[in-house]
Amino acid sequence: MTSEEQQYFITLLKEIRNGENSRFVSSKRFTQHGSTSVYRHSVNVAYLSYRFAKRLHLNVDSRALIRGALLHDYFLYDWHVKSQNRPLHGFYHPGRALRNAEMDFELSDVERNIIKTHMFPLTFYLPKHKESVIVCLVDKWISTIETFQGKNRLGK
Ligand SMILES: [Fe+2]
Ligand SMILES: [Fe+2]
Question: Which of 2, 66, 91, 104 has a C-alpha 20 to 30 A away from that of 115?
């Protein structure tokens, strides 16, 4: 990516981290896969989704792509701890992430759709935008790497 593109990514990451009501940094406390925190996983998915779109010269809404990807797992609980309130994390967490994100940020329709549909086809909500399809695919790819690498090379 160009240095401008990298800078743009960092600007949006800071915007999400430092938002007035943001709880994004608290996702560092929760493990996602292997030794990767939810925070690091979300940054990985956002960065690689953006990089993928730029590499393929896809005409995407970069702002929505990055912000939606950063917030796609904004569920803010430890999913390894069983709870009757959320019996099946895989089905439950996109809706919870969207509710949390709606509380803390102003979201666009594309950002909402990215969060809501990222678990397709496990959940039946269909990705409606190319940005949603990219995050859905990159999330699965990154999750597989994180799960099978005990200590993943993208870091915690
Ligand atoms: Fe997820
Ligand atoms: Fe994810």
Answer: 2
CATH topology of domain 3-75+85-148: Hypothetical protein af1432 (1.10.3210)
Nearest bound ligand to the CA of residue 147:
2
- Structure confidence by residue, pLDDT tens digits, 42-59: 999 999 999 999 999 999
Angle between helices 38-55 and 130-148 in degrees, nearest 10 = 130
The residue length of the chain stands at: 156
Cα(69) to centroid of ligand 1, in Å? Answer: 10
Provide, for the chain, the percentages of residues in helix, strand and coil under a 3-state DSSP scheme, each rounded to the nearest 5.
60, 5, 35
Token pair 């549909």: residue: 117
Residues with CB under 5 A from ligand 1 (ion): 73
**What does the pLDDT look like over 89-98, one tens digit per residue?**
999 999 999 9
**Per-residue confidence band for 62, with pLDDT thresholds at 50, 70 and 90:** very high
Distance 32 CA to ligand 1 centre (A): 9
What does the domain layout of the chain look like in residue ranges?
3-75+85-148
